[in-house]
Amino acid sequence: MSRARCERCLRPSGHCLCPLIPELPSRTRVLVLQHPSEVGHALNTARLAALGLNNAELRVGEVFEDLPELLARPGYRAHLLFPADDAQPLQPYGMTDEPLLLVVPDGTWRKARKLLHLNPLLAALPRVTLEAASPSRYRLRKAPGPGALSTLEAIVQALEVLEAPASFEPLLRPFESLIEGQIAAMGAETYQRNHLKP
Q: Do 128 and 87 touch, CB atoms closer than 8 A?
């Protein structure tokens, strides 16, 4: 028999994160395209981002048939937050800049690349990247590289560049709580043995 869970944050009822999830406005529209393999992940950070931002949407799939409609939002310029040789570093909005529709693939690097491969329209978008990403707070996953961030962290950092001096730090509160809960569940000794850098 499965445990009762919150239908909003998808956490077990006793560990519901909803009281920690903010409702933040943003000038930027965020569209997260989540690979199906991420949906059941215990640390589903893309869902936390979509719940905490008023101007965000989360779609799950591999092929997005309605991608042309999703990208054609009046008043927004669609850009893909994903590394590439020609990716432009994000810059703060100027006074007259049209805001971005920031498209963020969510999955492992391999799954995210697959989303781009299966959705040529997505791969064709102009790309943007974080010039100097802060270190990840994701203490439970081994990052593939020094600049690797969880989806939620990448979104927070991107918005804080674009919409400076606005702070999107409250989006990280449920994320931090989730990580602390996972560490507590595994026990300090197990965490130190398997996750702390020597």
A: yes
Closest-CA residue to 44 (of 18, 19, 16, 9)? 9
- Going from N- to C-terminal start, the domains of the chain cover 23-133+148-188
Specify the length of the chain in residues.
Answer: 198
The model's confidence at residue 17, banded by pLDDT at 50, 70 and 90, is: confident
Just give the CATH number of 23-133+148-188: 3.40.1280
pLDDT at 139 over 50: no
CB atoms under 10 Å from CB of 187, counted, come to: 10
Please say whether the dihedral angle defined by the alpha carbons of residues 14, 6, 102 and 87, taken in this order, is positive or negative: positive
Distance of alpha carbon 1 from alpha carbon 123, whole angstroms: 42
Burial of 92 (0-12, 13-18, 19+ CB in 10 A): exposed
Report how far apart the first and last C-alpha atoms of the chain are (Å, whole number): 40
Q: Pick the closest to residue 99 from 169, 158, 49 (CA basis).
A: 158
Specify the pTM.
Answer: 0.85
Angle subtended by helix axes 151-162 and 45-52, to nearest 10: 40
CA distances to 69, 75, 81, 117, 185 from 66, rounded to whole Å, are 5, 19, 19, 16, 40
Q: Under a CB-based contact definition with an 8 Å cutoff, are residues 178 and 17 in contact?
A: yes
